[in-house]
Amino acid sequence: MYRKIIFFTYVIVITGLSLLPSSSFPIPRGGLFTHADKVAHFGMYAVFTFLLFYAWPLKFSGKARQFLPLLYVIIWGTFMEILQGAGGYGRNFSHFDILANILGFFPGWLAWKQFSKLTRQESN
């Protein structure tokens, strides 16, 4: 149960971060680096993916079902971008942000595979 609480808490956090006005973030004068926001999207959705597998490890086991979380990443990441574009949040819709969200699936999935392999070895 605590795993699902962690996942849904994280979803609330990334939803809040996605919908906050960009002026709310403490960005140094002159910015960070080119496309720093894409790196943030990539990382946030890698964690999203890992926590999704962590919360429901049996639901997403097996070759066919392990890519179902990719669909969730695509849907949630696209939904957040649509809300950014439609809402008065001082944010913009970006196809590249959606791509960064989707690409974040893969390191999250690989991290889960490694984590689950390590935890299986420790339990044996």
Any low-confidence stretches, pLDDT <50, length ≥5?
none
Q: Which range best describes the helical content: under 10%, 10-25%, 25-40%, 40-55%, 55-70% or over 70%?
A: 55-70%
What is the gyration radius calculated from CA atoms? 16 Å
Tally of helical runs: 4
The portion of residues forming beta strands comes to under 5%
Main sheet specs:
none
Number-wise, the strands total 0
Q: What is the N-to-C order of secondary-structure elements (H for helix, E for strand)?
A: HHHH
Average pLDDT: 88
For the terminal residues, how far apart are their CA atoms? Answer: 24 Å
Shape: elongated
- Judged by helices, strands and strand pairing, the structural class is mainly alpha
Layout of helices and strands:
Layout: H1 2-19, H2 36-55, H3 68-86, H4 95-123
